[in-house]
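Incident review: delayed structure delivery

Summary: a single-chain prediction request sat in the queue longer than the usual turnaround. Root cause was a stuck worker, restarted by the on-call engineer. No data loss occurred. The affected request and its eventual output are reproduced below so the record is complete for anyone auditing the incident later.

Affected input:
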Amino acid sequence: MKSSRAEIHSRVYRLPELRFEDQRLTSFSGLVILQALFAKLQLPDRLTSCFAHLGRGMVIGLPTIALLLIVHLMLGYRRLRDLDRYRADPLVARTLGLRRLPHVSTVSRCLARTDREAVSRVAGVNRALVLDRLEYAALPRVTLDFDGSVISSGRFAEGLAVGYNVKRKGRRSYYPLLCTVAQTAQVLDAVHRPGNVHDSNGAIGFMRDCFASVRQRLPRATLESRTDCAFFSDETATFLHEQGVQFTISVPFECFAGLKQIIEARRRWRRLDREWDYFETYWAPRSWPFRYRVLLLRHRVHLLRKQPLQLELFAPYTPGYEFKAVMTNKSGSARHILLFHNGRCAQENQFSELKSQCQMDYVPTRRLAGNQLYFLSAILAHNLYRELQLCTHDSRRATKPKRPPLWILEEAATIRHRLIQLAGRLTRPQGRLRLTLGGNELTRKEYIGFLRRLKSAA
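Output delivered after worker restart:
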């Protein structure tokens, strides 16, 4: 049906008059979906058990504050002061089981009361949620990626230290070590560390705990691991091999001049594809008791290298090529091993999403335990957005060499804008609570679909 211009266009002469009243309006109608998700996962009860040892002398308990932090981050806010922006929202208060939201100073004092045991229990809740999903999916193969991420801050907080920081040199920071699951794009666990430690500090014990927890839930699953050159050591390779984990580790050229000589002496390279050539050997440093399979690769590039010229003393250099060495105990083809190892770059995308959309890089208080609780709340917010999609959508992908997620997942900001940040009105006609939204048909179908699938998955 064709419409005229008069039916489509309208003239605007003045701005409407503004009036602010308490009309029981909410800006986050999608919280009904998150409330159903929390009930399905029994998240409030799990958080209550985390703070049981701290007593119940407060009007608003620490479990409620922890849930408030998770909701705060899932709504897209960063600073604790941003709580004032939705203080009068009735649906936020209802999701938390409150009649009135606490003041910012109350939240800050509660974070100061948090201790290490509570932080450890919250980390256990996050780990249990991810393991429940892995056990329910019954995955035959689980890939765990390990890497550190810098969290900088300009304030003087407990545990901050000056260390490795490429973007903000000289600033104090934390340097947590995270373990992510490639198949579900979730964070399994994390170790909160000061910023002046090496990437591999405490890594073996952390890896042992992560692999043991997964193997306890999935005893028949094949475990895999991918790490960068910061984890390259005899202890790490021996531990992974003895645990039956299929691994790949980047080899640093700067520490082993023999690899440079091997590459420079090589005259015939095998063609892998249009960009990569390779050859392989069994090699290990002289101090190692065992040798492992090592892929030596060169990548065709069109840009001039901009690193300092002194690196030529340690790393091989040929105009038009970049070189890489990967140690592994896998038995697949060189192409699949290269794709598998390069797939760990997806972890950097997860770190970027955690920092930009779940505010993992923010340091809210001066107390270490409070900052750790905020850090874990950001991880839980990220994992809950993933869980919302995993339990309402079917797996659409098969296992591929790069180990991408088995589900087609959307970022937290996309779900937040599409489902959560929608206006609505809370009313009680005939004593029955009702949330009224706009008459958009697509929104109605999505909301009903999410709630129905969450109810059937419970």
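Verification: The chain has a mean pLDDT of 90.
Action items: add queue-age alerting; document worker restart procedure.
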